[in-house]
Design the sequence.
């Protein structure tokens, strides 16, 4: 494992986000790397906007669900000290959007939480597993304990 220059934290707003965020921040500090965050909206309907897949965090959409998601991302970014320009919220398939952003931004490590699923859950796939297979860089899956 070489020295990472740019780490991308994929956040999903689960109850375990703090654990994954702390790991990513610790790695960024250790390697003196840039830290970016991404949240992919795949479970709320998008309003009719002109934003495309990347959602500007500085513009008010007037759409309550979208504004709540943006506020969560901003709060996490503030807690982790992530620069405003390194926070992304996009709409689409998590595996594709995370890998696409990582490539575009020259990320060399993606950090994502994983529940370590087994059996049928593993066959159906998880975000961590999907990102691992789509990303062109290293992927660190932080094992999360189910409640």
Sequence:
């Amino acid at each position: 494992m070489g020295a990472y220059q740019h780490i991308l934290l994929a956040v999903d707003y689960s109850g375990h986000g703090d654990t994954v965020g702390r790991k990513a921040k610790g790695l960024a500090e250790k390697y003196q790397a840039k830290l970016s965050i991404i949240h992919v909206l795949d479970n709320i309907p998008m309003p009719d906007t002109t934003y495309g897949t990347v959602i500007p965090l500085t513009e008010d959409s007037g759409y309550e669900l979208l504004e709540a998601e943006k506020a969560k991302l901003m709060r996490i970014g503030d807690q982790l000290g992530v620069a405003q320009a390194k926070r992304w919220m996009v709409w689409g398939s998590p595996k594709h959007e995370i890998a696409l952003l990582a490539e575009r931004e020259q990320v060399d490590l993606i950090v994502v939480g994983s529940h370590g699923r087994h059996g049928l859950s593993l066959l159906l796939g998880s975000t961590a597993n999907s990102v691992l297979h789509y990303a062109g860089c290293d992927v660190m899956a932080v094992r999360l304990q189910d409640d």
In short: The CA atoms of residues 95 and 133 lie 8 Å apart.
